[in-house]
Amino acid sequence: MESISSRKEKVFQLLKRGFIELISVFVAILLALWVDELYEDYQRQQRIGLAMQSVMSEMKDNHKLLLKAHDFQTKTLSIIRDKFSKNEDVTEVQAEELLAKMYQRSMFHPARLIDTAWQVMLQSQLLNYMPHETVLKYAHHYKAQQDMMERQKLILQNLDNYRINSENYSQMLYLYNHSVNEIWWSEKNLLASFSNLGVSADNSNK
How far apart are the first and last CA of the chain? Predict the structure, then answer.
């Protein structure tokens, strides 16, 4: 017959083996979860990288459009100010002729900027895994872009309403000059925002 001490030794060995197996299973589970988390993080970083590439591509396209629009507005202001710089009162006939000239070359050339890539990134919730300061910079830029476009739309609507309801060409020319100037400054401020994010004329052409 087995002695009591021998039985105790067998029980101890069984418990020891069971404990080791339990620890092994626990470690294996933790390791599997860790590897899975690493892989998920890798995939997430890949998605963030692709999404940011789309955002930067969108911003470069927007920057090109804004530069063209800003150049058009600059030339428009130059034409108008050349007329005003002669220190002469602009007559109704002169104002009408100048407005007709502006109409022929297009009164305005607003930039049609988009935010599709940014909206996709917002909906994907990938921003939750990006540095807070980086997210704020891009969010502020796209908010400024939206504000500029809404402001320009309102300016054009007001000017168009005045044109329909008024035949005072001198006043119309003054309002037109003021409107273009306001649009010019809003574009300039947004161009500065592009510059702060590293988007310039040089890398927009790449």
Answer: 89
pLDDT given for residue 97 in this prediction: 83
Contact 111, 153 (CB under 8 A): no
3-state secondary structure 67-124: HHHHHHHHHHHHHHHHHHCCCCCCCHHHHHHHHHHHHHCCCCCCCCCCCHHHHHHHHH
The DSSP symbol for 17 reads H
Task: Give pTM, 2 decimals.
Answer: 0.77
Q: E strands along the chain, which residues?
A: none
Nearest Cα neighbor of 114 from 170, 47, 186, 64 is 64
Residues 57-116 pLDDT 10s = 999 999 999 999 999 999 988 888 877 665 567 778 888 888 887 777 777 788 899 999
Give the integer Cα–Cα distance in Å for 44 and 39: 8
Residue 200 Ramachandran class (φ > 0 left, ψ -120 to 50 alpha, else beta): beta
